[in-house]
Amino acid sequence: MVSHPYSIYIWHPARTARGQHTWYEALQAYTENDALYTANLIHLDSNAVIKVVRYGLNLACFPDEHTVELCERQITHQQKRLLEQEARWNGQPR
């Protein structure tokens, strides 16, 4: 049983050129209203990119859905690059 089904994630960009972008789970909420209200307050205060998630589905995106999609695309590209680098390392004789 899930005690707090709603999660609020805040986007953290990489701090260095080779760093990793991540979504940080900042808070869990029991109700949808609590999650949306809190996410909106965090966004208004910090202008951070935030998504409210329940069971892996985005319920709300701040500032908008397009911005969240761009952030998720960056993570996908980053993971793809890491897999390509790993494949190159594994393919080279040592």
Overview of the molecule:
With 94 residues, this protein is α+β, with helices and mostly antiparallel strands. It has one domain. 45% of the residues lie in helices and 28% in strands. It is built from two helices and four strands, in the order E-E-H-E-E-H. Strand 3 (50-54) and strand 4 form a beta hairpin. The radius of gyration is 16 Å and the shape is elongated. The model has no long low-confidence stretch (mean pLDDT 90).
Task: Indicate the topology.
Layout: E1 6-12, E2 22-29, H1 32-46, E3 50-54, E4 57-62, H2 65-91
Antiparallel strand pairs: 1-2, 1-3, 3-4
Secondary structure: helix percent: 40-55%
User: Which strand order does the major sheet show?
Assistant: 2-1-3-4
Order of helices and strands: EEHEEH
Instruction: Provide the residue-averaged pLDDT.
Output: 90
Could you tell me the number of beta strands?
4
The general outline is: elongated
Task: Jot down its keywords.
4-stranded antiparallel beta sheet, alpha+beta, 94 residues, elongated, 28% strand, 45% helix
Give a nutshell description of this structure.
By secondary structure, the chain is an alpha+beta fold. The protein contains two helices and four strands.
